[in-house]
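Dear colleague,

Thank you for sharing your sequence with our group. We've completed the structure prediction you requested, and as agreed, I am returning the results in plain text so they can be pasted directly into your records. Please verify that the sequence below matches your submission; if there's any discrepancy, let me know and we will rerun it promptly.
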Amino acid sequence: MLFAGCSLTGNTPVTRARHELATRYNIYFNAEEAYYEILKERSEAFRDDYAELLPLHPPLPATERPADKGPFDPVIDKTGIAILEHSITAKPRRNPAKSRSQKYRRWLRQEEFNPFLKNVWLLRGKACLQNGDYDEALSIFSGIPHLFGHDPALTDETEIWMLRAYTEAGNLCEAERRAGALLGRKFPERLERLFAEHYADLLIRKGDLAEAIIRLPAVIARESGHTRKKRLQFLLGQLYAVTGEDEKACRAFEEVKGLSTPFELTLNATVWQSALASGEQQRKIARRLKKMEQKISDTDTATFLDQRRRIFLKVAGGDTPAQASHPPSRPAGKGAETEIEEKCAQYREKIVSLATTPDAEKTPDTSPERRNPSVQPRTAHQPERETPEALQRRLEENAAKALQLQPATTSAKSRKQALRERKRQQKEKVRRRKQALKEREHKREAEMKQRERERKRKTGKQQ
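Please find the predicted structure tokens below.
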């Protein structure tokens, strides 16, 4: 209502200021609020699997992956309206007094003169990324430097978001190349936190856990949200655990606990500590864990027991999440699965016995250590535990025996047919991708033409 009687056409300092003000408060504010509200709802609805490495960002559920729409479509629609109604692409009248200024020349070469639309374009790209439309997100992020190339901070931020887009799309080679180009740059504190978070996510996904452990504490220190900070601390404890640093893992899980920490995080941190600890410390943790289990609701009991079983199985048998990302070259036979289940059953029996045995009846034993230098007691009914290396060798031997018993049914002819079928599928996938890109390009050109016609129509009415 403030500018109802004023013209918004042309490219002058007054029109640029009016378009910027209208974009900021009429559209962008509501779009940004909707973006963070949807992101918060997704984070609250996501249920973590504490037996696996926690993801840095809640993944998009399979039920939210339709081909034509997504949960962040309201944000995309609002940003589209802002771009359509408040974009300024006409060149301004040149100022002869500034013709020799390099900064002024760079400013004249840009294609968008509404200074606030850079935030709109960036928010639109982030919404497409959260929707799982990685191609469209990458297209937007790569186009932002062409529109606002005079803003180096914006260029750095879009490249960091492109790093995340490539990572979540599964193109780790390109993501690693982008990360290598960004590693040597100096960023403001806000972008430094953003880059550290996305780079740590890339390191975990490609299996470089040692480097991820080095990078993750910086992400935790810069995180302002309490619950998310504790969640990242839990992930750090998991990384220590799967790399064999049990003492550091127990300390990291202990830092997760607190008065404001969600009960689910505290409970599962205690489960990991119980699986990693030994001796008297394990007895204390087992008694504490038994008290905490009484607070679990009946609906969550089955999920908790399954996750606890898998946590102890990973610690006992060495089947860590990091190893799960690199499958063995030989398939494991039925005997190997039986042995792993027996190993897990022994672990469960031990936890029950430790939690129920009175202190007066507990007598320390001098049995060999399991995973760390501390001494661990052994009950009379429990056999001596194998080391992870010995268990791994035995599993490989059983898998080799099972492989030898299988008849050789794969012939050279069937292998050639499989190769031809694979090549055909790859060609079909490339063809579909090219067709989708071509259709998206045609759609974008049609939208640009429609936007130009709308602008001309509005200009004609105002004249």
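Summary note from our side: The two ends are 20 Å apart (CA to CA).

Kind regards,
the structure core
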